[in-house]
Amino acid sequence: MPLDQSLPVPFERPPLPSLMRNRLRPDVLAMQRYLVQPSQGLLKMDAMENPHRLPLELQQLLGARLGALELNRYPGLRLDDLRAALAAHAGVPQGFELVLGNGSDELISMLAMAFDRPGACVLAPVPGFVMYGVSAQLQGLKFVGVPLNQRFELDEPAMLAAIMQHQPSLIYLAYPNNPTANLWDEAVIDRIIAAAPGFVVLDEAYQPFAAKSYMGRIAGHEHVLLMRTLSKFGLAGVRVGYLAGPAALVRELDKVRPPYNISVLNAECALFALEHSEVFAAQARDIVVQRVVLQAALAALPGVETFQSDANMVLVRLAPFAGSGEDVASTVFQRMKVRGVLVKNMAGFHPLLANCLRLTVGAATENQAMLNALKESLCQAIQ
Predict the structure, then answer these.
(1) Which of 120, 232, 259, 276 lies 20 to 30 Å from 289, alpha-carbon distance?
(2) Contact 340/41 with Cβ under 8 angstroms?
């Protein structure tokens, strides 16, 4: 798993007690833990969170509703209500069912567990969501990452060759992709789906901001699943994800789901949000508008290359200093942080992301503050 380059890295680890060295898995000991960047006192533009809070009236209604819950009881049939509400909201086709997860991360782990057979392989384009590879590794599955091309599009010949060679049990296709934020060519995706010897998971975490979805097309496939999360819907703190697939397969996957993995509080928050989905839809529309404004402003900056975005983030590549060989992204990242703005430095995650920053699309005032910090940091960097 890539190390979060925004945090200081010790030159060497302190020695581990022998009991830990002898009993913990060597690959776990060698991994870096998932690090969340400290954001105290900073404008947080690194995690693709919805910048909008619930209106005060809805906050009060939700508070009263949560306060009336029986927190002394385990989650019960209310989760069936949540599944039904999510299926209706997402337009899940007939014959498909949902399995719920504590965010998409847990669903990815559950898939790795369910498909863990000797010699099984997970395949995905890279750079992509790091948890595809991490979950495969932790479950003992082989992970094959197929590089995107220089424009962050699917390399169709390389994908088809890797599928033929490795015969993956699972193929992940993020639509849009994280961290590149783009939608891939539907015709290429269709050919990958047709070539897949196992199952294909279309990860639509950023669907609220995208003009397209595969939900209406999965009914014709018995080996295609579609995953979404309410994190980008506007409920990052609630941790509810869902996976739609053919009913027979979902019932098998549900066997590896931890009991009570969705709390009564999380379920009720999600149901409340779906009942007021028009509020969240309006927030998503505002973010899309702000994305257009932000991309135009970024494109006007010298030395900044922007890439097409269909999500609530924008990937930019910064031009290196003439003859310096300096890591511009890390320099600008640190200088933006000094100016009170936290973005995501993608240096070190994949060679294709050299000198790249990932910027969250926020509210208009947040985006302007981020742009100002970027401009000032670039000016300082080239002096």
Answers:
(1) 276
(2) yes
pLDDT given at position 67: 97
Q: Which CATH number fits domain 73-275: 3.40.50.720, 3.40.50.620, 3.40.50.300, 3.40.640.10?
A: 3.40.640.10
Residues 6+ apart with CB under 8 A from 46: 6, 37, 39, 342, 343, 344, 358, 360
Task: Check: CB of residue 170 under 8 Å from CB of residue 198.
Answer: yes
The stretches in the chain having pLDDT less than 70 are 1-14, 321-326, 380-383
Going by C-alpha positions, the residue among 245, 239, 211, 206 that lies closest to residue 225 is 245
State the fold for domain 18-53+279-381: Aspartate Aminotransferase, domain 1 (3.90.1150)
Question: For position 249, what pLDDT does the model report?
Answer: 95
pLDDT in tens, 225-236: 999 999 999 999
The burial class, CB within 10 Å (0-12 / 13-18 / 19+), for 223 is: middle
CA distances in angstroms from 144 to 147, 159, 175, listed in the order given:
10, 10, 19
Q: Which amino acid is at 58?
A: L
What values do phi and psi take at 358, rounded to 5? -110, 125
